Amino acid sequence: MSDAAPPARTAAVIPAAGRGVRLGPGAPKALRALNGTPMLIHAVRAMAASRAVSLVVVVAPPEGAAEVKNLLDAHALPERTDYLVVPGGETRQESVRLGLDALPDDIATVLVHDAARPLVPVDTVDAVIEAVRDGAVAVVPAVPLADTVKQVEPREKGEPEPVLATPDRAALRAVQTPQGFARDTLLRAHRTVTGNVTDDASMVEQLGEPVVVVPGHEEAFKVTRPLDLVLAEAVLARRRVTDGF
Ligand code: CTP
Ligand code: MG
């Protein structure tokens, strides 16, 4: 026996407590099926596909925690992957914080991954983890934009909106998840940064800590609107043909 500390582990926190208002009426978004399997299960499997991930913490809709636990019990994960289910909060940020609160002490690297990005490839997950293990405190997968972006003066829905600026598209990236963090940095960000944010890396930016971008993947898109369900099912159908999966 040596006195060396046990190896630091990596966990993935999956916020899945949103309603999915933009997807339209129905079950909470994470529980909707994609080719017969709930979106959340696809997302959990995408994290568990990485050999580095030893724990998945699912943040469930507050009234749906028992149902989510049953779902996870019913769908096999790799032997090496443990999972926990905790009830979520009113905002994504609060849900992530509740997931972070459940992490055991030996977790050094934390991924935060939207349940709404069920199809992220394992190579993207591994690239994020590797960048954190190489010393980055915050890592974001991202892709170049297809559309030109205008900054506008927002008006009521349907009203013409004055354009204020056109940022150089070459310097813009659309960010995805999983975002990867040194655990201490992410915890500090969630303890100190308040206000409305839409991703975790921006909280780390507000601490003044460096955030880096690594290449994301087109299949890591977020299922947000009904058309995204069509795309997700098409991607799954293509995978079944090309990978027999
Ligand atoms: N999320 C969460 N807790 C909340 C709100 C969102 O855990 N209170 C999660 C969602 O379940 C989703 C991720 O955060 O996996 C990204 O959010 P988004 O795509 O906006 O999902 P929803 O908030 O569910 O969708 P909408 O904004 O259309 O209602
Ligand atoms: Mg939302």
UniProtKB/TrEMBL annotation:
GO terms for molecular function: 2-C-methyl-D-erythritol 4-phosphate cytidylyltransferase activity. Pathway: Isoprenoid biosynthesis; isopentenyl diphosphate biosynthesis via DXP pathway; isopentenyl diphosphate from 1-deoxy-D-xylulose 5-phosphate: step 2/6. The record marks R169, K222 as: Positions MEP for the nucleophilic attack. The keyword Nucleotidyltransferase applies. InterPro entries: IspD (IPR001228), IspD/TarI (IPR034683), IspD/TarI_cytidylyltransf_bact (IPR050088), ISPD_synthase_CS (IPR018294), Nucleotide-diphossugar_trans (IPR029044). Pfam families: IspD (PF01128). The record marks R22, K29 as: Transition state stabilizer. The keyword Magnesium does not apply. Its EC number is 2.7.7.60. It catalyses: 2-C-methyl-D-erythritol 4-phosphate + CTP + H(+) = 4-CDP-2-C-methyl-D-erythritol + diphosphate. It is an enzyme of class 2 (transferase). It comes from the Bacteria. Gene3D superfamilies: Spore Coat Polysaccharide Biosynthesis Protein SpsA, Chain A. Keywords: Isoprene biosynthesis, Nucleotidyltransferase, Transferase. Catalyzes the formation of 4-diphosphocytidyl-2-C-methyl-D-erythritol from CTP and 2-C-methyl-D-erythritol 4-phosphate (MEP). Belongs to the IspD/TarI cytidylyltransferase family. IspD subfamily. PANTHER family: 2-C-METHYL-D-ERYTHRITOL 4-PHOSPHATE CYTIDYLYLTRANSFERASE, CHLOROPLASTIC (PTHR32125). This is 2-C-methyl-D-erythritol 4-phosphate cytidylyltransferase. It comes from Streptomyces ficellus.
